[in-house]
Structures are given as structure tokens and as C-alpha cells.
């Protein structure tokens, strides 16, 4: 399929490097390109140096490299408005993303999970369920392991659970999961997608190629997602935390997660037995249960997994307790809705660290909720959005605000000192409601730095 083709891979982060390796195993001749220099990219590109059939081009414009190219594969970090993508399409060169490439060249039953929040936890939880069911399972995509990294070794009866972002969905074409799930839709990434209509449209691409033999799992509690049921050809399976869906789904009945319809439901797990806390994690558990039950996984396997799954790094991750103050790393909280869910999970008076890269979103509802939530005692603001957050917090009537701008260590130290003044036991929560790119490489880098600073603190 790829043998002899000349393919340009643009963007050499994790997924781009995996795409280069996959293409080489299929006989393509590859130009691996990035406008960043080797020094800027660091050790991640060293594996490509000197590889037969790979021409490495770094720190130069990509558009001049398009001559003689059969296909352009772009990493999700490259916006579709980039001049090289526009030029490639004008030249009649096929443009696809790493996700599309992996789908075309891989095998296995694909489960694709998207939404604004909860993707990583639900993907990891769903992956564990299938692993515990004895299936050869790969957890891939936006969660950490590139889909292309395993596409060359998967077999037809393997399970792939893939976290899918809106960035990745910009460049799909034939992408066709047998199970697609949309968890929720709230405002996010409008710096790239411009408006909510575009953002919502991108999310629907996860099921666009499905047919009647496929399954789409939708959140009945989210009105935008609920409306998508009118446009999919797949069989709709619902999940709901607050009501009973109109047809088959996972929902709550008498304190238990059940699956089916009233009068013909099967018990999955007691809500009180779910290990990871918070109403948002109950929603994640419902979504994973709906996916797994619809795919034929026995309820006892799902029950065991819900009782033992301990969550994912950087999402409501307990770091340590020091001097009566608990530290929680929620660096994965990269938008307002995600941060609101983290706040709802707090069971102690809390000082929250907010702010970061500006994605052109509004924090009015977050500010109003913080002002109404008596459990949030103070905010420490950092990054590009600090001033915007301060204005909107003050406008909502919340005035215990501390501006630390770009000094992250000082922000953590300040939050600790504020939490120590709380009578009884306090908490420091890092849940920035913003992306990290103004100060860090990504949210993982931010969360890792938070943990490093916290673990170095003395009482």
C-alpha cells in the first residue's frame, strides 16, 4: 500500500516519529520534517538520524519540500491552516493525519473515545476492562502512546482503545471505529477551531463513517451530544448519571450502575464501589461500562475493574500531604469545565492554582462557580490568562486572588502558605483550566514540575 511512495511527515513529536517508523516498515520513502531545529526538538528525533530511507529535514520551511511528494502526513500539533498543508492540497497531494495513517495500516477492533473532558480517564479505564477480559489490548492515541507505534503489529482480533482529540479529527478521511464514544462537549480550543460550530462538527467525525453494524456511545445528559443521535448511522448506546435513557444504555438505579432498559437491566457495579472519586469519574465509569457491555464484556469483569482502577497521572492525582495540607495534581484540567469537575471532587477547603496558555475561551461560568463554592478559599493565578481570570473572578465577587504570573515555583509555595492558614485540613489543587504551552512543553511537563516542587517542600 505504501511501498515506493514518497511521503513527507510534518511534525516530529511523539506521533510524527511513530508515523515515520510505521511508513518505513511498509516500504515508503520518507522525508521527516519539522520547522523546529534539532536543538529545539531534543533527543526525540535522534532515533531518526541515519535511518535508511529517511531524509531528516529540520529547522527549515516545509513547503519547498513538497515537490515530488505523494502524500503529506501531519502531526496533530500542526494546524490545518498551515501554508504547507494549503500548498499540498493545491498541488493535489493527499493530506492525512497520523491517526488516519495508523487506521489505514493497522488491524484490530477500534474503539475511539472523544469529548472535551474525561477522555484520558475513560480511555485508560476502558483499556483496563478489555485487558482484564483477556483481550490483547492497546491503549493509544492522544493518551500517550501513538496509534502508529502499534499499528504495524496489531492483529485482527486485537482491541485498540484510542483517545481522539479534535486536532486529530481535522485530518481523518476513512477513519472508521467499530465503537465510537462522545463523552461531552464544552467550550475548548477556540484559538484553533474559531467557534463552537466548527469544534462540534469536528467531534462528529469520530462516527461519520460508521454504519448500522457499528456502535456509538453518547452522553444522554449533554444536550449537544444527545442531539448527535439524530445524525449517526450506528446503533446508539446511551450513558447517563442523572436520568434513565430512552433506549439501551448505562445508568444509575438504586445506587448501582446498570445496563439495559428498565425491567431488563443487568447490574454492573455499586456506585460506592468505584475506586476513583467524584461525579465526573462516575460519568467516566458509566461511559466505559456502556462501551464494554455493548462490546460483550461480562459484567463481573467490568465490576472488578471499576473497583480497582486507580485513575491516571495528572488527573486528580494525590501527590503528598505535608503539615496538614493535601496536594492534588490535576494538570490535565486544561479547560474550565474540567476544572469545575475537579473542584466538585474536593472534600477539603482548597487553594486552587489557575491560569496558563490563552485558548480564547471565557471563564465567566468558572468564576461564578468559584464565587459560589465555599470550599475554594483562595486562588493563585499564573500565566497568560492570569489577568483575564482576575478580572472575571473579581466581577463574580471572588476577591481572595494572588497574582504570580510566570513563576510556577513561587505559585506553588504561595498556595501552600495560604492553605496552611486554613483552620483544620486544607488542600492545594493544581487545576489550571488552561493549556500549558505558555510555560511548559505540555500538561504532563506542568504536572511533573508541580510534583517535583511539592515533594521538595519542607513543612
Observed structural traits:
3 domains, 459 residues, Rossmann fold, UDP-N-acetylmuramoyl-L-alanine:D-glutamate ligase, Protein-Tyrosine Phosphatase, Chain A, 34% helix, 22% strand, 17 helices, alpha/beta, six-stranded mixed beta sheet
Please, could you describe this protein's structure?
By secondary structure, the chain is an alpha/beta fold. It folds into three domains: 6-98, NAD(P)-binding Rossmann-like Domain (Rossmann fold), CATH 3.40.50.720; 106-308, Mur-like, catalytic domain (UDP-N-acetylmuramoyl-L-alanine:D-glutamate ligase), CATH 3.40.1190; 317-456, Mur ligase, C-terminal domain (Protein-Tyrosine Phosphatase, Chain A), CATH 3.90.190.20. The chain has helices at residues 14-25, 38-41, 83-90, 98-105, 119-132, 148-151, 166-169, 190-193, 196-204, 223-227, 279-294, 299-308, 336-345, 364-372, 386-395, 408-420, 443-456, and strands at 6-10, 29-34, 54-58, 71-74, 94-97, 109-114, 137-141, 159-163, 179-182, 215-219, 235-239, 249-253, 256-260, 266-270, 317-322, 325-329, 350-354, 376-382, 401-405, 426-430. The protein has a nine-stranded mixed sheet with strand order 7-8-6-9-10-11-12-13-14. A six-stranded mixed sheet has the order 15-16-20-17-18-19, with helices on both faces. Strands 3-2-1-4-5 form a five-stranded parallel sheet, sandwiched between helices. Helix 15 (386-395) links the parallel strand 18 and strand 19 (401-405). The longest helix has 16 residues, at 279-294. The N and C termini lie far apart (61 Å). The mean pLDDT is 92.
